[in-house]
User: Fold these one by one.
Assistant:
Number 1:
Amino acid sequence: MIATLFATAGVAIAALVVLLSVATVVRRYRRERRERRRATLVEPLRQVLVRLVTDPTGDDPSEEHVELLATPPRTWRALEPTVLDMLRKVRGESRDRLVALVVAHGTVERMRRRTRRPGAVGRAHAAELLGLLRRREGRDDLVRLLSDRDPEVRLVAARALGELGDTSAAPALLASLVTERSVPLRVVARSLARLGPQTGSTLVEGLRSPDALVRSVCAEISGLLGVTAAQESLLAVTDADPDDDVRIRAARALGRIGLPSALPVLVAATAPDRPAPLRAVAAGALGDLGGTAPVQFLEALLDDADLRVSTNAGRAMTRAGAAGLLRLRQVAASAGDAGACAREALAVHALSHGLSTGPSRPIAPPSSSDPEATVPPRPREPGLPAASAQDARSS
Amino acid sequence: MTTVLVADDDQDIRELVELKLSSAGFQVLTVRDGQAALDAVLERRPDLAVLDVMMPVLSGTDVLRALRLHAAGDDGTPLTKVILLTAKAQEADVEVGFALGADDYVVKPFSPRELLSRVQAVLGRGHG
């Protein structure tokens, strides 16, 4: 009895395996046949497409445009993936010609309709293509997809909005960070960055958001894009935001923007009662401001008890122009933590500029109670360019 | 006739560049991998090679390195000028390309029209 049961089960399993194998082979065969048919249909038109993109005649509309526009819907659907694939490879006039063809064939409208279909893959694909085509008609559909029930669709829609380049989508992108159906921070940040400095007013508004994540992203992107209009808000945020991460990103942004008016707030952010990560980033940002003004404040941080602060201060001095480097060389000749930090910063600076730091040699500690008065400027080491040339590059 | 070699594993790119350059009066050879590109340069001595960086067998930078080592005239000047065509747009990538001796660098997605201008500029004359 048991043997019969096992035999029956074995036969059933074998039959199932055979059936699945046959189904797989049939599916593969049908797919290949479909692909071959598509290739046969598309190949002659592909050559026309290549001619359209390279525009050898310069006619407007070109013969190729007219010919491709006249393709029947079934043929166009077979050709469309090739067109869209080519769209990813070219730019300029060539791209414009492809987009004009795609638009004339109603692809944008079809993709917009597809954003409402039940299948998530179809919606994501439509969103991607709307971004690729960079047509403003697709903006509202993409914004709607930012709150799609499928996280992948939301992600693709956020990326597509960045591609689209319509800055009016920036508030929706920011809002997508903090809704129940959120979009990953990195994707939103990248899309906002792609939209460019024209998103400035949205970023300034976002720095006043009650949500720390939004303020954080706005601070970061303002710095990356160099949004000078955000300076005042960034100063306020660096000084008094309740969230340390936001303050840190705002301080970094102030350095990247590089306006001298950031100096007092950044100096205040290095005060010992501030959180150490903020102090360290503010020290770095002071160096990014450049000029002579930050040097004295950075020098005071070279012997800071927190290694992150002192290290960043040293490296920031190498970026602060001639005065920073000169002072750093003087301090490097002194004993103690500040001297060690200065020597390390100079070594890193030399390495990152492909310069020789020269043979190592002991540096005499200061012999008087006034190190600044007695320690001579460190003699230039072999291979290290003169301060003036070096400093001009740094500044 | 001025000869240009186009090496790219992407058929679309090869055909686009071939048509654009040939319609401007250049003779164009096309290959689909780095080894074929190197062989073609050594054998046919084209005036200029447009090399994709990411190619099978040998990368465009490998080909360029080999060309700059071996394929030079009696006075040491390169026999074939090289334009790198690549999706790698980081400053460091561009720097590496020029350090290896590339004459120009075009980033994908590219404009066929701009590429033609660069080819003409590298070859040092208006053509076609």
Number 2:
Amino acid sequence: MSSNTSNSIEIKNLKFSYEPNDILNISSFKVKEGEIVFLYGPSGSGKSTLLELIAGVLKNKSGELNVCGNSLTQMSLAELDHFRAENIGYIFQSFNLIPYLSVLENIVLPYLFQKKEIDQAELTDLIKNLGLTAFINRPVSQLSVGQQQRVAVARALIKKPKIILADEPTSALDYNHRENFLKILFKLCRSHKTTVLFVSHDLSIEKLFDRSVSLVQINQIKTEAVEIL
Amino acid sequence: MSKISWLQLAFKSLKNRKFSTSLTVFSMVLSLVLLMTVERIKRAAQDGFTQSISGVDLIVGARSGPLQIVLYSVFNIGQATQNVSIESYNEIRKLPEVEWTIPYSLGDGHKGFRVVATNQDFFKFYQFRSKEKIEFSEGGAFKDYFDVVIGADVARTLGYQIGSNVIVAHGATSGVAIQAHEDKPFHVAGIMKPTGTALDRSLYISLEAMEAIHLDWQTGSAPSEDKQIKTSQITPEMVQPKTITSFFLRTNSRIAILRLQRWINEYKEEPLLAVIPGVVLSEMWTSLSMIEKVLKAISFLVMLVGLISMLISIMTSLNERRREMAVLRALGASLKNIVGLILIETLVLTFLAIFFSCVIKIGLELLFGPWLQSNYGLYLQGNIFSSNEVFYLAIMLISSMLISLIPALRAMRSALKDGLSLKL
């Protein structure tokens, strides 16, 4: 099947296991270009594993995984690293930043893996839009958790990736900050037409997304954590 | 804002761990400085041994230890206990197998430098390094009684020029003399070119002058004013030398050396000892090189400790840096990049260690060079870095790179295992 360019992510019959435990078996899952998708599931349901597969850090054993028109199954490890540097912006739950670099150094860190030059005007814009102008030369240890997560967003967006993968980036924030954070993130992603796949176990933010998908429903493997629920 | 490089990243990461980084660099520096210092001193000693004197077949002095004769005659170290009478010297000097001799009369000093009384043959025959002769940068050999020729270090240290007054101190080859020959000042007649040997740290007067300044010292101490003999009253007969301390001897043919040595050692008139300088020096060198080997072994052990401390410091940091590695992986770092980062960090550590050890080495040489010269006769000559020292630096670099493969591969394995979802 040729990949459909209007889909950012296409998954068909994807199976993945950490021997001897099967983790994922997803028969079909698609995310359209520019779509902002909420993928919820309890801890241990394989959310992070799915993100790592899409980011090309893990290699899937069988099935099809097309991301931004690339078939990740057929790529070598080096090609996957290059693909990740080019196409994926990643935001962690916490500890996103390199502690010994300043805010600005953290933001431009992705250029370590690319030959492109920094677009100074866009960098300034991005920093301003995220309200980080006052902090850019500070050590990251002086920032609050919310500020740190905004730096992580800046870093994820600086290269204009096609997809942002976010692994519960709001779980360390309180409700008000959560909503603000997401609004800024979505606004920036919409203006760049960036696809967002956001995983969380926190259903309270579900309504802010274009679409919401339950991993438990698309994944045919029922892990212990899911069974407890 | 410009892009950040891997080198900058490695630098900042090391800076972030200032304490363990500086301890690691310190122990690496320590081992390199130790190794290079041992090497430098060995080189200076070896140069001193092989270069201070050449072309001399025998050194003859009153009977004492062979080593002692070589040390006080060639290296300015120690003193003779007995003298050689001028009659014995003259008899040996006139033997048919003797090509030339250089008499030495020691015992006086000037401001910490040794005063050697000798004759014109010293300037004619003395050889050092590979058959180099004494040359003058200014002036020439002594002609008058109270002419003095000074070595290059003496001129430089004391700021003497041709014509400067020199007052010889009695019986003190180093330190402060109690009594001085103030009534008979010398004038600098010549300044020798630097030789890099003990010659540079001596003053040379004639044997007659040595007699002259001691003429009125028959009781062993300075004469009272009424008993002083004026310079104008001195006649050549009065200052004929009666004893010398030792002399260098060159034979006509090398075959004669052993026979002549035995003849001198069995000399009936007075107990003398003739030594072959090469033999004594090589014996001394053998015992010294044992010490050198031990020191070198210790230095290599210190280097090993330095490398192990580097290994431990990097290994212990790895666990707390797993999150950092996951972040880099998410941004597109390959496993090769992770290995590379650890290698670059080690490279930075090693270059810092090499840089500081070289700075310290040069500093130590500037600081202790003069002291080594005056106290041990060790001249820090030639290139600052010998090929051996460069070799040690290279060993440090290569072995630290090899050792850092251990943490680098470990970091790679844990990065592969952790992926991005490492939970702390």
